[in-house]
């Protein structure tokens, strides 16, 4: 990649300012927001979040109902976005529950991990 800290360049329509990193950061932040605000079907609140009880109410898990071919393409894009974040050192503002991170890291889940996101 030619830009080690940015993978794409952002140009705001109607503005003559060159992207010095702010537009790139804003585009990443917007994607993370859309992943967590219901704009896409990939993530959902933890069961504790939906029931408004227990711990990790503000965390998200991957939507177990997102199984179709379009969802798989969206998950593939999310994986690419995570890879870009790792490669460029640009953190993603994703509030994923700890069990999701453990699964991404290939670590086994325990019953305690699951009760942290679903007290029932």
Provide structural commentary.
With 120 residues, the chain is mainly alpha-helical. Helix content is 45%, strand content 5%. A two-stranded antiparallel sheet has the order 1-2. The longest helix is centred in the middle third of the chain and has 20 residues, at 69-88. It is elongated. 13% of the residues are buried.
Topology:
Elements: H1 22-36, E1 43-45, H2 47-51, E2 60-62, H3 69-88, H4 98-104, H5 111-117
Antiparallel strand pairs: 1-2
Radius of gyration: 17 Å
Instruction: Quickly give the structural class.
Output: mainly alpha
Q: Tell me roughly what share of residues is in helical segments.
A: 40-55%
Q: Mean pLDDT, nearest integer?
A: 87
Outline, from the CA principal axes? elongated
How much of the residues is beta strand, in percent? 5-15%
Q: How many angstroms separate the termini?
A: 47 Å
Number of helices: 5
| Strands in their spatial order, largest beta sheet | 1-2
- Runs with pLDDT <50, length 5+? none
* Main sheet overview: 2 strands, antiparallel
- Order of helical and strand elements: HEHEHHH
Number of strands: 2
Concise description?
The chain is mainly alpha-helical and 120 residues long. It has helices at residues 22-36, 47-51, 69-88, 98-104, 111-117; strands at 43-45, 60-62.
Keywords:
mainly alpha; two-stranded antiparallel ribbon; 120 residues; elongated
